[in-house]
Amino acid sequence: MFVVQSGVVKFKLFTRSFHSFSRFYSIANSHKVVGSKLPLCGAYVQRTAAVWSPGTSGLLSGSSTVNNNNHNIVQTRWNSTDEQSSRQRIRKPLTLMDFPQLVWPSVIKTIRNWIMVHFIIRPYFDREFALPDFIQGAKQALQVVSSSLAGGEVKQLEGLVDRTAINDLKQSIAKMSVAERYDIQVDKEDVYFSFPYQVGVMFDESNDDSQKRFVEITMVFHVLRGLKGMIERGESVPLNVGVLPEFRDKISICNYRFIKEFTKGVDSDWTVNVVNHFKPSDYVEE
Question: CA-to-CA distance for 262 and 212, rounded, in angstroms?
């Protein structure tokens, strides 16, 4: 912008604007990654901003994809300039708990999960355990938990969700608008893809009398809002639904982690200790 006063052009303002633009360009083309490692079922997962996309067409401009432990993580670079609000706006992500955003299966973890189920859990913990049955139960839990959160009725989750997780969810729900809470609600019939991301076994030897044993399973659900109605109307669902613009705002991904104690003599149920929902469209530039 130029300002003319007394026939003299004020180049200082122009220089300042040019410097701001240069700074914006250099940051937008940098490859800065900020993250930390969090423990998850005996493994470590890089915590970054994860973004939905089966291919490069769904990624952010100014983002890059890396392969960390055989699952896709998108590293998002946040630019900061004097005119960011008008040049580049990114929707505020929907966050319930501080947890790595898991999107796709890991080949190594999938093989390890199969070994854990068939050679450890079934022979030594529960001979009747079946992963397909667990997945169906996990979908039902997803519907119950998400419906309670959408209605702001967190107290109803006692006994189904871990107490520590409930406290975190209360704080997150209190900050959300009615529309944001509405996006949380999931019908189990709208889940079009789900898989156990990681199966883990934990032992607690702090008690000398008995060794406590726990099984922890992290589930990933891909949800298309309205899928149930489409099927009932006989409409076909495209295989590449994840990259079609008309479905972009209807897709969400849910990460739920379940835990159960298998100590001898202890009768317990599966409970949820991690609840996280996020919409891939929140990470797409407008």
Answer: 7
Backbone angles phi, psi at 42, to 5 degrees: 85, 0
| 66: β partners | 73
CA distance 91 to 156: 30
Which pLDDT belongs to residue 92?
60
d(CA 97, CA 154): 14
CB 73 within 8 A of CB 66: yes
Compute the distance between CA of residue 260 and CA of residue 31 in angstroms, rounded to an integer: 41
Q: Backbone phi, then psi, for 25, in 5-degree steps?
A: -65, -40
pLDDT of residue 60: 37
Question: Alpha-carbon distance 56 to 60, whole Å?
Answer: 9
Distance between CA atoms of 163 and 126, rounded to whole angstroms? 25
| Contact (CB, 8 A) for 200 and 42 | yes
**pLDDT at residue 49 in the model:** 38
Query: Which amino acid belongs to residue 29?
Result: N
pTM (2 d.p.): 0.67
The number of residues making up the chain comes to 286
**CA–CA separation, 272 vs 176, rounded Å?**
21
